Amino acid sequence: MTAYIFPGQGAQYPGMGQDLYERFTEAKEVFDEANRLLGFDITNVMFSGTEEALKETAVTQPSIFIHSYAVARAAGDDFQPGMVAGHSLGEFSALAATGSLRFEDGLLLVSKRANAMQKACEAEPSTMAAILGLDNETVQDTCEQVDGTVVPANFNAPGQVVISGSHEAINQTIDNLKAKGAKRAMELSVGGAFHSPVMEPARDELAHALENTTFRQPSCPVYQNVTAEAATDPETIQHNLIRQLTAPVKWTQSVEQMIADGAETFLEVGPGNVLQNLIKKIDRKKTFRSLEV
């Protein structure tokens, strides 16, 4: 069975999507519609903007969503997933590509999500850190032993966990994890503590928008971040998306469950190859590549 996987924030790059725009009518329609819905020419930033410009809150998450959806549209009848999953933001791309969300609804939700997350970061300065070389349980236990806000945010691959929280708590946890044998423990250059309690205001803001959005049954099972389990029920999908901003991304667990359920090939839909590299660390015997259009 073939699993389609959709990248999250960090996969963007200058020039992303221009080739799709020029080669495929279906993709051009997606980009033009995105400009109309957002009220500014996001395609100009995607095609011609600098790396710094692509990191702006109003641009980064919508750009990745648009690119992934355009790839799916350009693939036409070759877009045939047996199951899907997306990393954080990528879950919205997966839901739109499989028909659970209309493109218009998905894009506006992603835009609101990005802005709500930015406001939460500004209200409470915070950060994230990558931890390499320790098992999930050690990282989890160490976070729980530190005073202040610090939690596992992304279980990306065996021995690769990202933690999220206040600056002080993150620094203390880094020191403690190094003492426990972490190969690397380093603060990341990010805007704030995503997938942590710091995002509570953003979750509350996004919840209202999600509750007023119509979800449909997707064309195949969607393995959601907060549960690492397959979902097809629209209400379940909606509920899990509301939880997603403050819950950890269970990427390792999701991929392992997809493999247990029959996934043999993973096709990355969207910019870059970040998720392929993570899957290589989870099970290098599987086939993984980008969806070609």
Overview of the molecule:
With 293 residues, the chain is an alpha/beta fold. The longest helix has 21 residues, at 103-123. It has 13 helices and ten strands. The mean pLDDT is 95. It has two domains: 2-122 and 197-290, Malonyl-Coenzyme A Acyl Carrier Protein, domain 2; 127-187, Alpha-Beta Plaits (2-Layer Sandwich), CATH 3.30.70.
Notable characteristics:
single chain, 293 residues, alpha/beta, Malonyl-Coenzyme A Acyl Carrier Protein, domain 2, Alpha-Beta Plaits, four-stranded antiparallel β-sheet, 13 helices, 10 strands, 49% helix, globular
Radius of gyration computed on alpha carbons: 18 Å
With strands numbered from the N-terminus, the spatial order across the biggest sheet is 8-7-2-1-9-10
User: Regarding CATH, which class of the largest domain?
Assistant: Alpha Beta
Query: Do you know the CATH topology of the largest domain?
Result: Malonyl-Coenzyme A Acyl Carrier Protein, domain 2
What's the total number of strands? 10
CATH second-level architecture of the largest domain: 3-Layer(aba) Sandwich
What's the N-to-C terminus distance? 19 Å
**Given the helix and strand composition, which structural class is it?**
alpha/beta
Give the CATH H-level superfamily of the largest domain: Malonyl-Coenzyme A Acyl Carrier Protein, domain 2
Average predicted local confidence, pLDDT: 95
Largest sheet: 6 strands, mixed
Which regions have little confidence, pLDDT < 50, spanning 5+ residues? Answer: none
Write down the domain tally: 2
**SSE string, helices as H and strands as E:** EHHHHHEHHEHEEHEHEEHHEHE
**Count, helices:** 13
* Structural shape: globular
The helix content, as a percent range, equals: 40-55%
Beta-strand content bin: 15-25%
